[in-house]
Amino acid sequence: RRFGPDALLLGGKLEVAVSQETLESSPQLGLTPAPDAAQPLPSSFLPLEVFDNPETMEPLLLETWHHLSETPVSARSRFRSTSGDTSWEPCTVIRHDPASGTFTIRWGSGQTKQVTRLNLQFDSEDERRFRARLDAARALRSQVEAEARYHQCALGGGVERTVAAPAQIVAWFEGITSQALGAQLEIYSQAMGRAALNQSLRTCSVSTPPGLPPPSDAPAPSLGVEAIWPAAGTGATPLPSPPALVADSALLHCTRRVWAESLWLSATSLVAGLPMELPCRLDEFIETQATHVDGVGRRLREEWVPACERILAQEVGAMRGFSTNSYAHGRGPRLLQLLRLMMQDQLQALEYSTLAEILRLVCRFAVPESECSSPIIQWVHEWPPAAPPLLAVALRLEDSSLVFAPTLEEVAAALEGLFDRAAGATAGLPAVVATELGVDALEELRSLDKAASDDARLCPRRMSVLAARGEVRRMVERSLERPRQLRAHMAQFEELASMAESGYLDGLRESAPSLEAFGVELRRWGEVAETVRAAAPSEVHCRLLLVHTEELRAELVAKAETLQRGVADLLHAELVEKTASVASRSSSLLASLTQDSDSTEAAMAMKEQLDSAADECGDISLTVATELLARAAVLDQFSYALPDETSAALHEAVGWPHRIEQQAAAAQLKQERDTIQFQEQLQSDRERFGEQLEAWEAEAKTLTAFNANSNVEETSAHVTELKEQLEAAKQQGALYNSRAVLFGWEQIEYPQLAELEKALEPHANLWRIAAAFSRAHPTWMEGPVVEISTEQVEQDVDEWRRQLYKVSKLLVGHEGPLGVISQVRAKLDDFKEHLPLLAAVLNPGLRERHWRHLDETLGKSVKPQPGVTTLAMLLEEGVDKDLAALQEVSEMASKEHSLEKTLDKMLAEWRPVVFDTAEYRDTGTHILRALDEIQSLFDDHIVKTQAMRGSPFIRPFEARVHAWEAKLIGMQEVIDEWLKCQSVWLYLEPIFSSEDIMRQMPQEAMRFTQVDRLWRKVMASTVAKPNVLQATATEGLLASWQEANSKLDLIQKGLNDYLEAKRLSFARLFFLSNDELLQILSETKDPMRVQPHLKKCFEGIASLDFTEGLLITAMKSVEGEVVPLDAPVDPNAANGMVEKWLLQVEDAMKQSVSTQIKRSEAAYKTSRRIDWAIEWPGMVVLVVDQIYWTREAEELIAEKGLQGAREYEATCSEQLNDIVRLVRSDLTKLQRTTLGAMVTMDVHGRDVLTSMVAAGVDKLNDFNWISQLRYYYDPVRSTDISIKMISAEVKYGFEYLGNSFRLVVTSLTDRCYRTLMGALQLNLGGAPEGPAGTGKTETTKDLAKAIAKQCVVFNCSDGLDYLAMAKFFKGLAAAGAWACFDEFNRIDIEVLSVIAQQIMTIQEACKASSERFVFEGRDIPLNPNYGVFITMNPGYAGRAELPDNLKALFR
């Protein structure tokens, strides 16, 4: 806009092309006045395309360019030859890029190039018009460049003097901020520089620099407008340079009327006046400002702009001959531009006055900088200033935190928002409409705010606004510091605010504080309340803000007083508790002192009570003083009013010691009188007791007079009574002695009691036995024989005979008692002879068949009749004479009865046995559990039943035993089949609960549904009736379980075939267990469920990144490294076939790794190595590093021989040092891991070169070189990477490995690599051998990393069979993966022989280059890149020697 009227049409394109930096930094401008006027013009420095005018001169439609890729167009373009000559040559336009505006052309040679529109002439367009378009653009560029040189020359000191700004102009800017002032002075300096340069050019005082426009001598008109640079304080865009407008009285009259209509703006402000009463609320302040600004904005839009439009319409309508030509050449747009700039100037003046008003407003209430450092203690209590604050806020508690309402951020935003609100009032105002001129305004003239530049250096207005904003922000932040200090000052009470009263009091109660601790807490909360009151006044004057704290202070004081009251309540509760305890102790002691002594023991106890009463009374007195009265005193100190009942109880407790002392004195007198009375009574009782002993001695001597003629019952009762009297006498004597001890008297021994007891004992036993036998004998002989217990009779007879024998030894010499013993013993001996008869007749095993047999044998009936037959009757009938026959039959019956009891016992043990069932997860059914006891019972009873079958006494119930045995065996079979079905059902139920599995295996799903229906039916019946005998007795249950197990076998076979098919579709699934694979297949609708199993399918992928639409876009390693996929994988497109999209992930993984390697290889050439090393995934960095190590080493050795090796050795050392320095810098964990592995490989590469230099290697076919692992890659020819070592060559696997470490390469590592690579070349396996811990497995894994292969490590054991190995080999052969079998020689020798045949089958197929082969009866694909490696620890226990046919398959 500043380069003339024609340049005005360029719009924003020129501002993009020419910036202040371009004008200042270009070395081609030629701004220094040259001493020689004939110096040639410098070349153009502005792009020509900026000055093109396609809107009026483009002959082709844009729609034609959109189809260039489908239909190429013929054209001609500028072609520069190798000699530097240019010419227009034929070409074909094949593409157009709308974003950059360029075209892609193809020369006849096939090369392509990007060109601009002015460098491209289509065959279909007119050549003369194209040349005119090109010339017009060049002419406009020359004009603009000349104006730019002129402007820069004026700025750069084209005149050798400095023009200073007048003092009055500087003073005029004092209302503006310092930043804006500097900008205005710079503008003034530029204007004076231009004036001085013009004068110098006209007077030829200096030479005209090349490229400047010639000086103009045109005289200034007497009346008109001259183009100037922006006036200070307005920021308006300058008017176009002459002859934009010439002197025209009508136009001047129009502009003067518009100016007069705009004068009201100078008396208007966009900041409302302050209310009468301050401070005001923030919402009131915001509402007042918004209302005022909205009013001004409406006036601007609804009154001012329409008024200016009316003036324009009136004045233009009165003009004669006003041109209605296009805006590009007429005066219409210039008039509109002039009016627009005038109105903009008024609006900007309004904005500047508003800025000053805002600054004055904030400065009036801001805290001076001199007071900012004052501590809060100096100003918080000082007398407030006379001027009130602007706004009022409150400091409150919210969720136990101190907050301002409104917040300080809201206050700052409201004050700073004055700028935004003011800018919004003038933003978007429409410019005057040119409808009266007959055409519409240009887009850039339709708004009054379009001229504002985003470049702050070119727009002083913007600089002023930014400066004013910054100053207001600083003053507000300075003024908000005091409220923040106040909040920080009051923050000391946040702990008080956040404290939970109940929690604090509960903790204090549980800690059982002392009285002193209670006092401390009471004083503490009292002091806190006082501190809160003194912390700050209810209103704190902070100049800008008035902070209300009365609500906060009241809340905090109430909280402290509540806590103090709670502590006092706890102390009062203790006082009540201890008062009650004193009352309880005192009343109990007083009650014990008022009791009467009704015995010697009570009198002595009273004496002891009196002895301890004095001490206890003193203890109560001390407790009252130190515990009760002290607590009451503390409570009284803190003005705690005790309830009436507490005061009464406390008063009563104080009087207890006196009452106890009075009662103790009365009890002492009474106890002395009672003691004298009980001593006299004891003396009398002891004398009477001695006389009684003498009487009992005389009576005991008369017992020897009793004989066989004495009445047994009377004598027995007399002796028993005498014995009881002696027992009582023993206790009485002990009582008298104990009372004597209480009185301190000597105890009296009573030896007569022991002698009497000893003498009486045999007589008591004799007459007790005689009485018992005399009562039992008639019952045995005359009572019903079936009611006699043979066992009890035998026990009594034997016991009595034994005791009579002992008594006879003690009564030697006493004829009477000995006669009684002889008589009783004889009767016992007589009855004992009938005991065998009783045992035979009363045998419980005798059944009716036995009695019939006896009747037939004896010829008479001997079976006792219940209630009729007695022993005497049997003896009268002579049954005792047939005792031998009776005993024989009775013994047989006993054995049969024993077997029958055993059988009944087994049945009784089974009756309460029930199945223990448990609900199985959320299936709605149950399963059996805890069957060990049932199985143990089966084993025990089957053995017992089989032993019973071999007994000779089993015949009477042989059929029952056979039936019971069959029952047991049947139950066992049912339970065995039941448990077998349960184990398989538990395995299959989660599988077939998935709809996906049910859909993919319909036949197996139908069979499982049938089995599941049977299972649920039987288990429901078992839960209802869990008894084992009943549950297993269901008819047809055994056949049902057998049929179910047959179906389950078919289901398992179908399931295994199904899993095998899935694994063959994606061979890496062979490395997952059946459970893991089924877990994946059962959730095909949710691809996220595969995430946990990815690590077993892929070497380095720990998880995949899914979008919200479940598209897989990247792969992530365990270390957290993320590598994007070239193309996203859509699992949903696989229609639930997990193996299908996993196969796509595998392909995408390899393609993405290949792409990353290709891009990284290209970036290696153009980037610094230390920057390149941390910008790419870890494995990509390592492989590209090895590619360039191989390439650069071979190039230098091939070119310079040994000297090339030396040079590259130095290069490697330098590169290594660079990486080491990079490692010491601030890196992420992933970058550090990458560099660690890179250092490992770089060190090995340098060491290899060092050894080659030492060996004098100067050729590429030297063994020292070809024995190294070398990487070859040519992305132009192929995407494959060849890895060579000696004669072996393998392809890079592109398996994503993550960002993992690499082993340090030693000479032993290189030897292992050579052996393993040679084995791969020969289609053999590798077998590192050595002691444990020497790195066999890790070396194999590291070689797999070097080749980017998946390597699965498998730990072998002696339990491994050939079927499991066959599954593994299928996965290796089909997936082309590697496997390392650790401790391979732990496998059994028989299995090793089969494994040898399996490996040989794969190797033979690989040698035959077969794409598919038959393995273990199944046709599977073959990937020749597979690898089988084994490790062995020779000489260890449990290790087998490998068979010869297996050794031959490994190196």
C-alpha termini separation: 83 Å
According to DSSP, the number of beta strands is 23
Radius of gyration: 60 Å
Q: So what's the overall shape?
A: flat
User: Given the structure, what is the number of helices?
Assistant: 47
Which residue ranges are poorly predicted, with pLDDT under 50 across at least 5 consecutive positions?
A: 1-41, 157-181, 227-247, 323-329, 434-446, 450-459
Name the strands of the widest sheet in spatial order. 4-3-2-1-5
Major beta-sheet overview: 5 strands, antiparallel
Structure class: alpha+beta
- The averaged pLDDT comes out at 80
Helix content: 55-70%
Strand content: 5-15%
Description of the molecule:
The chain is α+β, with helices and mostly antiparallel strands. The protein contains 47 helices and 23 strands. It has a five-stranded antiparallel sheet, with no helix packed on it. Strands 6, 7, 8, 9 and 10 form a five-stranded mixed sheet that branches. A hairpin with a 5-residue loop joins strand 1 (73-80) and strand 2. It is flat and about 185 Å long. The two termini are 83 Å apart. 29% of the residues are buried.
